[in-house]
Structures are given as structure tokens and as C-alpha cells.
Amino acid sequence: MTARYELAPIIAGVLAIAAATIFLGYPLAHVVINAVTPHGQDPALGNLTVRNFERFFISASYQRALWNSVVSSGGATLLAAAFAVPMAYTVARVDIAWRPLILALSVVPLIAPPFIGAYAWIMLLGNNGMITQTILSIFGWRLPSIYGAFGVIVALALSYFPYIFLIVQGALAATDPAIEEAASMAGASRARVLRTITIPMIAPAIGAGMMLVFIKALGDFGVPSILGGEYQVLPTLIYYQIHGFFNLNTGSAIAIVNLLLTILALAILSAISRRQVATLSGTARATRLTSPAARLAGNTYIWLVLILSLLPQAMVLLYSFAERWGDTLLPSVYGFDNYRRVFGEALATTWNTVLLSGAATIACLAFGTITAYATVRGKAVARWALDLTIMLPFVLPGLVVGVAYLSAFNDPPIVLTGTAAILVFAYFTRRVAFIFRSAAAAIGQVDNKLEEASSICGATWGATMRRVMVPLIGPALIAGGVLVFATLIGEISATVLLYSAQWKTISIAIYELVNANDLAKASALGTLCNALTLFLVLLASGLLGRNMSEMFR
Amino acid sequence: MSRHAHWLKNALAGAALAALSATGALAADTVVVYNTISTKVMQAYVDAFQKQNPGTTVQVVSGGSGELLTRIRAERNNPRGDVFVGPDADVFDVALDLFEGYKSPEASAFSADAQHKDGKYYGFSTNFQAFIVNTKMMPLDKAPKTWTDLAKPEFKGKILMANPAQSGSAYSQMHQIVKMHGWDVMEKIIANATFVPSSKLAFQNVAKGEMPIGLTSEFNILQSKEEGFAVEAVYPADGTALIIDANGIIKGGPNPATAKKFLDFISSKQAHEILVQVDKRRSARKDVAPPPGLTPVSAIKVVAYDTVSAATDRTKSLETFDKYFSRK
Predict the structure, then answer these.
(1) What ipTM goes with this model?
(2) Could you tell me the domains of chain B?
(3) Taking the CB of the first residue and of the last residue of chain A, which one, N or C, has fewer CB atoms within 10 A?
(4) Is A3's pLDDT higher than 50?
């Protein structure tokens, strides 16, 4: 057989490298350049400085914010695991009703529209909140204040626990319960099976989920800005520099410190995932505990966590029907007026959001799959560099990505400001890691004998990709794509710096309404936004004919 | 598969078409407004301006004053916006190099301290900073009467203030307190107050009964009261200043001629009357009456606010604030 000259993989590789350089590396370089440029000056070789970092060594409030970031993200991660792991175990191993509903609802906290969620916590659990006041009047108890570390940790844990839940649930569903059964038949107690078999088996999944929560919590601005009060974390500090001092240089320096923290977390993640044992098999059966006690305990726990995490959304839903809500526990006038008044706005901005997020999702899918393939199968020397280039922007706060894109793409050689493209590429930058990770995991599970067989039979590289690889990893790609699309619908922090009037998104429309103190209309728009996302998630899982848990495996 | 590819092609074609038509729109008479005020008022302006200038498109980009100033600064070599609407005047003062001087025909309607000397900005609304008091939580006669009262131990843990580094109006409040009473008093207020990151929370959380006292602009108190919350305004008896917000033209913007037209319009009597009516703010024009329901100026002890020192002291003051704040 003569070796054929294959053009397709070379073109794909070159395009991927070009995209990584222009849309990931170039803006990232701008963050670094901004961080070492004195405030108010144009960067030049002669004026580079480390002054922007010096506050971390001299300012007590910076050191405290750094510490607070570690504590609140770490606390939220542990609490999220405490919520998620028993839930995942119950859904996978206990015979309970409404499993698909539970899985669908558990995605909702991830797609919360911007700003409204944290306000909802104040309306529920603030000093004068609905729950606080109800408990006070019935039992005479005063709940602890939600302002500060406690509230931030609880709210972050409740917003991000689904990442752990979905990943662990998927891992449990994929492992064969036969191993556990064998152990208990050999005489091991239930506790011993859990400790020596089940937990080690799902440990990598728990670790991966916890790292994801840690990274997301570390970058979260909305929750600490509303519930933190005086409790500052690194993202609020970045905002503080850019908003209060108009100083994007110090802001970038803080972002880099935030980035270093995250790299540390990623290093731990890769150390954990290297220990992964291959337990996946195609023949996992569902055997489930049916004892009434297990069902009661499982149901109680699951619904308690779900209801808690959906409370802010329920509040948004309630508020969306409130036509008048002054100084009373519940709205005084209900109706559809808020929806009527946002309808026109909703139509125009939803279309923009769908186009922009859709285009970005497609870009993520194309690029993420090719690079994942290259990292898993290729012998590229700079594999780790590619990995890092993709993961870093994922952990940068949106505000910083926005500033980086503004400074990178406003002047020649590449001018994109004012176009739809700048939003699409910024979204791409912020989310491609999702696809990259899930595609890499899926490709890792495909035996490369399949590809060899295909090429021995005479298929070109392109045909092998199209006919063998993509169908095999398709479900993982669609799951990743849905997650990218769903989380982009509410993207606000980069959008607010980059959007132009013709490309106003639904998240900007919500932001404007919150700004104008019109929370009722904002809630109506937020509810529409949620409904749209949930509809798309359900549609995708329906098209695939599989349930949500398998999608997010 | 092919159906998907077809859909993809359509979507991309749609995106390309939309991008093209966007460039087309720019060729016509257009003005790009970087907007920090409420969308209700801005929408009324867009409608009125387009009616006066048929065929002109007003493109509105909304955001906080910090975000939009960051955007203007990052875009300075290739500006995308034409007019900056509604930030505090001292936001212009810290970044005068980014704005264009323009002698508006409306200039004579503004007093000298309500406009920049080279016409880089013209006043918009002008508002007193006051205390919002939740009367369910604290009877009015027990409420603080002066700025110095805020430093008294009895109000510890009862005052809500926005973080001056994150909110323009909170910075103005702090600047005013420091100018009148010095850092001694401000240090005690920092110890007494709870700081929130947004100026909105400082009055919303008082209206909702989270805290009895908040520091905010007077129109927020009037708006909350009209929404049905049990709140009252207390104007500090030791004097409070009129803080001015403003509009200006961005230097090197894409549509300089329309920008001037829009600035003239937004500085006009008609535009200011809309602002007073919809947002309950006082106008910076000499010939527009304040909204009914606001305390008349004659009943308020007014002190001068120095926007220039507010801008020049900004970095140093905020560092001093940071020092006291981190000791809490």
C-alpha cells in the first residue's frame, strides 16, 4: 500500500493553530501586557513595571481578598460536593421516581440569568426576607445573616453543585454495579463496599466536578458582589479597580493572580485524573436499592437540595408576575403586564442571542474537537501548551476577557470592535474549554484500532473522522454544545464591554432593566430566558433519546 | 448530516448578511450613544431625537459608568462611541483627554459650575446626597440629622453606604464628608457603616427593611417612596452638596456632526423636562423646575462641591479609605 499524501489533517491542524494563536493567545498576551504597563500609558518596552502587583504585598485588603477567594471557593466546593455526591448516589443506585425530572431541574441553577439570582437571595433570606420573616413570626428564631462569607459560600455551592452532581451521576451510571454486588456477596458490609469499592471508583469524577466548581466559584463576581457586603474576593477587587479607579492595568494584574490560583487548581485536577482507573464498560445495568427507608431518605435529600437551589428561580418567577410589590411580604397585584411590556424587547434580543451563542457554539465544537483529537492522538511536542492556551481563558473573569478583546481587536492588524464577530470570538474564548475537555475524554475512550481499520480499508483521514470518530463521540459533543449554548445565553460580563447596539443580547436587556431598578420586568425577561434554555436542553436530550445524565457524562 | 450542514450554512449566511447590513446602517446618519441612565428616559430621547431628525439612527450601548469609561479608554485609538451620557461630572474630570471640547448653543442655560470650561461636558441632572431612613425600623426623630451624627456610636451597624471605590455617588458622599469634617469623622463613619458594592443596594436594602439608614441620591428616596416603601429623606443639617452628572462628546468618535446635534438635544429644555418627569431628578439647567415631591432647595442647607478636587484627590482618597476599611 502506498502512503497517500493527506492534506486534510494538515489543513485542520494549521487552522486550529491559527485560531488558537489569534483568538486565545493574542488576547491573553494583552492581559499580560496590560498587567505590566503603568496605568494610563501605552505599553512600550521602556515602561514595563511590576508596580501593578505590589498591592498584594503591601495592602491588607488585597491579602484578605486573596485569602477570602481561596476560603469561599474552597468552602463552596466542599459544600457543593456534600450536596451533590449523595444526590448522585441516590439517583444512580436507589429506585426513586421522576428521575428525568430531577436531572432536568438540576441543570436549571447553571443557567440562572445574570444579577437576578443574587437579589432573589436577599428577598428570601435577607434580614427582612420572606423566609427570615416567616420563621421569625412562627418560631421566633432569627436566622444567621446571609451577608458575608456564610451567604457567599451557600449561594455559590447551590449555584454550582450541578457540575458535580451531573458528572458523578454519569460516572456511577456507567460503572457496572456487578463489582459492588460481588463485594457484598463476598460478605462485605454496605459501608465497606461504599468505602472500598464505590468511592474509589467515582473519586476521579468527584475530583473533576469539584475542580470545575472551584474554578467557577473563583471567577464568580455576581454572588459576592451582592451577598458579600464587605467581604471582598479577587473578582470584586478586579471590578473595583476597573469600575472605581478606571484602572485596567491593576485589574489585569489581579486577574493574573487569580489565574495563577486556578493553574494551581488545574495542576491538582490533572494529578487526580491521571490516577483514573478504567471502569467504564458498555454493559452497565441498572440495579437499584428498593428498600422504603432508602427511598424515603434519598427522596427527602434530593428534593431538599433541589428546592433550596431552585428558590432564587422561583422568586424570579414570582416577581415576574408582580405588577406591584411594595412593602409587603407578597406582591399586592399580580398579572401578565410585565411579560406584555417586555415582549418586543424579548423577540429582538432573543434572536441576537441565539445567533451569537449559536455561532460561538459551532466554533467551539469545530475547534474543540480538532484540538482535542490532536492532543489525545497526536504526538505534538507542544501538547501541554495547547492545553494551557485553551484552559486559561476559561478561568479568566469575563470582565478581563472583555478588556483583553477590546485592547487586542480595536486597532489594526485585526479590527473587530463594533461587529458581531467580536462577541462570537469572545464567547468562543470563554467556553471552548468545555468542548475541548468533553471531546478529549470521549476520544480517549475510543480505541484507535477503529481508526486504523478504517484507514486500512482505504478511507481518507477526513472520511475516517466523519464516518467513524464523529458518530462515536457525537453524544459527548452534543452534551458539551448544549452546555456551552445554555451558559452563553446569560453571559453578561464580557458582553457589556463588547456589544454594539445592533447586537444587543437578552442578557444586556436584563442588565438594563436591573439598572433601571425595574426588577419585575427584568424577572419576566429572565424567566423567558430560563424557559428558552430549558426548552433547548430538553430538546437536545429528546433528539438524542437519552436522558440528561448520560449527556453530561 | 446534510440537513445540519444546510442549517449551518443558512445561519452563517444570515450572520454575514446581518453584519453587512450593520455596516450599511453606519453609512447613514447615525449617532452611537454610550448610556448610563435609565432606559426609560433614554428611549424617550431616542424617539424625540429621531422625530426631530428624520432618517437619523440613534444606537444605544448601555452600561455602568466605570465599564463604559473603560471601554472608551480601550477604544481611544479607534473610538466607536460618539456621546457619553449621564456619568458623574468627576468621571469626565479624571479622563478629560478622552473628550472633545464643544461650544453648545445651549451653554448659556447652564451656570458656570454646571459645565466644563472648554465645553468637554454639560450638566445633566444635579442631585443632593441625603439619608434614606426606613421609618418602620427607626422613627424619624431618632434618625441622624447631620453627617457627624453618622459617626456616633449609637448608629453602629445601622448605616448602609456604597463602597466609594465602586460607586461614583458614594465617592461624592465621602469627598463631601472629608471636605467638611476631615478624615477623623470619616474614619468613625467607616467603622460604623456597612459597605455594599453597588449604590443601588444602599437604598434598595433600606427600602426593603434590611437596614434602617442609607446614604443615597435624593431621587432614589422619592422613587422608593412612590413605589410604596416606608421611607423618608433626611437632608443633613450641616449642609449637603449638589452632585452633578453630565454629558459629553467622545474625542474622535465616528459621527462628529450628529454627535454635536445629539448633545445639543440632550442639553435642551425639552430633554431635561423629560428627565425631571420620568426619573424625579433635578435638572442642571437654570430654567427647568425640580420635580414635585422633592424638598425645595430653600429648605436645604447647600454647600459647594468641588468637582476638580474630587477628581484630583480621587486616587489618594480611595487609598486612605482602603487603609481604614481594611482595619475593620
Answers:
(1) 0.74
(2) 2-124+245-279 (3.40.190.10), 127-242+296-326 (3.40.190.10)
(3) N
(4) no
